[in-house]
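Sequence, structure tokens passed on for absentees:
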Amino acid sequence: MSDIAARVGVSRVAVSYALNGRPGVSEDLRERVREVAEELGFAVHRPAVAMHGASCDVVGLTLRRAPAAFSVEVFRRQLISGIQMELSARGFGLALQFVDGPDEEIAVHRRWHAERRVDGVILCDLRRDDPRVPAVLALDLPAVVVGGSGEIPGLANLWTDEAASAGKVVGYLASLGHTRVTRVSGPPDMLHTQARTEAIERAGMAVTVVAADYTGDAAAQATRRILSGKDRPTAIVYDSDVMALAGLGVAAEMGIGVPREVSMLAWEDSPLCELVHPALTVLRRNIADYGAQAARLLLECVDGRAPRSVRYTNPTLAIRDSTAPAAG
């Protein structure tokens, strides 16, 4: 700032007023200061600005996933893409950090808040009695939950009606005559995993649930056990596209025809689901738009508006070649 002041021939105070949009300098001087700042490559130091009570224009996102798993998680990458697009349109940045568990995640939120590094945070993969909820409420830190269910007092929330999704899956499989159905689910302690399980039960179909962790390795092991069993199901539902793709590969290795001997369906979509053979039947939703809407809800809170709970548009069933009438 001293260099800018010397180049323009004004005080550092005048430079500060010009760069921070404060009154007390003319528009001509403000424009001249900005031009020189750009020439010199000057950038505002966000933490220093935040110490004076200004917005730092950054949103924080922590993910309890190993970074190696992130490369194959189409859902997460599309979600982050949508969040980033919305934030960029508002001039905000995204601080992304991977953590090992809830304690570390809460510690990151506390540090970000204490150092005024973020204006709000995004919470994913909510668990029952999730400790992150009371933690961000105690910090009075604006937050949006992605994938909660219904109202979460004090926090914005974007959620999907899993009952409607389950109804589509169960109704479709039932119409094909499937009565022996197995579901390879995500971690059972996640709220959306539990919501899907409860929704399927309410829809009236007896489905055996085998828990996995969204990775291809876990899904492949689960599929091998399922297809090697004595009373093999006629249909398998996977909670993610990655797990469904792994299951499809295992069936091919074992010489089991899809969908001739077993139908397969994924609860999430990705481009690969349409490119494999046979193409996978999926529940489809616009994940990037889902992320963008979550970012909008959070920015409303950052702007001082009351948090809202919004139900996202129900996914559609895209019927492809991996499902057919039940064998036999």
About this structure: DSSP finds 14 helices and twelve strands in the chain. Residues 162-284 form a domain with the Rossmann fold fold (CATH 3.40.50.2300).
